């Protein structure tokens, strides 16, 4: 989790930030290409409808819900500008797959129906 009561950055937070940045640097071109491909509004960031299109693509063409898009945006819009930039896209994709895995664990293994 981010944010300490004293406002200081912990060693673990710094380590996580450096790892995230290094990972982004290795995938920078792919993230920039993905933003460019889906940025229909030409703002340099993915707004909710554009992010929905990308997540749907990652979801094997199955449309994602607006609630799922909103959740991913809330997790990944670190800059707070209402969109997902190339550096934030890696966070968004990681959060999306975390959500998908969480939802899969709530489904019946035999027929994929939701488990109560």
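-> sequence recovered:
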């Amino acid at each position: 989790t981010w944010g300490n009561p004293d406002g200081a950055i912990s060693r673990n937070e710094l380590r996580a930030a450096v790892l995230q940045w290094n990972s982004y640097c290795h995938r920078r071109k792919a993230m920039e290409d993905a933003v460019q491909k889906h940025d229909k509004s030409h703002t340099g960031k993915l707004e909710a409808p554009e992010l929905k299109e990308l997540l749907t693509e990652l979801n094997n063409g199955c449309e994602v819900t607006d609630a799922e898009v909103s959740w991913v945006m809330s997790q990944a819009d670190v800059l707070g500008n209402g969109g997902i930039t190339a550096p934030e896209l890696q966070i968004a994709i990681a959060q999306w797959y975390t959500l998908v895995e969480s939802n899969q664990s709530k489904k019946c293994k035999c027929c994929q129906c939701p488990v109560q």
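The helical segments are 11-38, 48-58, 66-76, 86-104.
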